[in-house]
């Protein structure tokens, strides 16, 4: 600590993080640089730590950094971080797994409800003054349906629980790496007798909803494509609130256009943020697609909490302490 009781470090915010995190950083650290500040570029010379959310920090900047020791990332996915460059520079990377889980699970349930009950479509049509829409349009119930979860980490497990508790859905799940408790225990008491399968293919013909909760890695890139859509039920919907690159978007477009599957709700796309050019092409033109701009964790509560954790973890690591959430 220095005379003003602040840690003698400069910390940069590369991205928009919740004001609670920034306020905490201002209380803890001697200098805080926001990406909107004119002197933000100083971070390369001066920052000991950097807080980030979704921005890709250029590899050249990481390599050029003079003092950077810790990159503290909000959220669980680290596909936007050049981990190799960080490793080579001795920069420790940490994230905030688990904190987002409830919010992403809530969104997944919301997307499924909106798609199957056609909520956003009918909202648009009601505003456009279409009459008798309520009597001429029908959706599908979620009650009693079967959801297939791919990836039983924190988010996949919460999603399973939400669909089961809210809509009495049966759960089939695939995750070769998840620990035993993922299959038998719920967070809120009571057993969750999920059916476990050894391959994704095994569940495809059974599920009404296929929900993806995986990281984007070389082995998951393009994992969900034509071969899988062809095996799904005609009435099935795909939910993706994880990462865009996991789904082959051209194959999805074709499956939706030909009604091989019923619909898709996507909070994650291969190109983010969705560009102006992309509107009006492919997926964006289809009525049976719902798109949200990667808002899985975008609640006031979760953003405030996880921004504070990002800063706390940064201060622990800069002061030589250890934490659980270090990314290997
Ligand atoms: O996308 C959000 C996250 O990585 O947690």
TrEMBL record:
The keyword Magnesium does not apply. Residues 109-296 form the D-isomer specific 2-hydroxyacid dehydrogenase NAD-binding domain. GO terms for molecular function: glyoxylate reductase (NADPH) activity; hydroxypyruvate reductase [NAD(P)H] activity; NAD binding. One of its GO terms (cellular component) is cytosol. Residues 12-327 form the D-isomer specific 2-hydroxyacid dehydrogenase catalytic domain. Keywords: NAD, Oxidoreductase. Pfam families: 2-Hacid_dh, 2-Hacid_dh_C. It comes from the Eukaryota. Transmembrane segments: none annotated. InterPro entries: D-isomer_2-hydroxyacid_DH, D-isomer_2_OHA_DH_cat_dom, D-isomer_DH_CS, D-isomer_DH_CS1, D-isomer_DH_NAD-bd, NAD(P)-bd_dom_sf. Gene3D superfamilies: NAD(P)-binding Rossmann-like Domain (3.40.50.720). Belongs to the D-isomer specific 2-hydroxyacid dehydrogenase family. This is D-isomer specific 2-hydroxyacid dehydrogenase. It comes from Leucosporidium creatinivorum.
């Amino acid at each position: 600590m220095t005379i003003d009781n602040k840690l003698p470090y400069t910390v940069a915010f590369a991205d928009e993080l919740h004001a609670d995190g920034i306020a905490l950083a201002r209380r803890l650290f001697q200098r805080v640089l926001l990406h909107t500040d004119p002197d933000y570029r100083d971070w390369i010379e001066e920052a000991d730590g950097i807080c980030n959310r979704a921005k890709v920090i250029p590899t050249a900047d990481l390599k050029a950094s003079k003092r950077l020791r810790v990159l503290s990332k909000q959220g669980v996915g680290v596909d936007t971080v050049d981990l190799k460059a960080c490793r080579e520079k001795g920069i420790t990377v940490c994230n905030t797994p688990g904190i987002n889980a409830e919010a992403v699970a809530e969104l997944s349930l919301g997307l499924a409800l909106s798609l199957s009950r056609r909520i956003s479509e009918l909202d648009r049509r009601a505003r456009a003054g279409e009459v008798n829409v309520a009597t001429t349009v029908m959706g599908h119930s979620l009650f009693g349906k079967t959801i297939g979860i791919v990836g039983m980490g924190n988010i996949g497990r919460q999603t399973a629980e939400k669909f089961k508790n809210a809509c009495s859905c049966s759960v089939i799940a695939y995750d070769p790496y998840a620990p035993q408790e993922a299959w038998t225990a719920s967070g809120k008491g009571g057993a969750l007798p999920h059916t476990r399968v050894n391959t994704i293919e095994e569940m495809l013909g059974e599920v009404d909803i296929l929900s993806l909760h995986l990281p984007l890695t070389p082995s998951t890139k393009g994992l969900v494509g034509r071969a899988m859509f062809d095996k799904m039920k005609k009435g099935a919907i795909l939910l993706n609130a994880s990462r865009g690159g996991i789904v082959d978007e051209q194959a999805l477009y074709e499956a939706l256009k030909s009604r091989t599957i019923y619909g898709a709700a996507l909070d994650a796309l291969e190109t983010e943020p969705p560009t102006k050019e992309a509107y009006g092409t492919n997926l964006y033109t289809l009525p049976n697609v719902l798109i949200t701009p990667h808002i899985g964790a975008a609640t006031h509560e979760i953003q405030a909490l996880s921004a504070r954790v990002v800063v706390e973890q940064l201060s622990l690591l800069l002061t030589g302490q250890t934490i659980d959430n270090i990314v290997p």
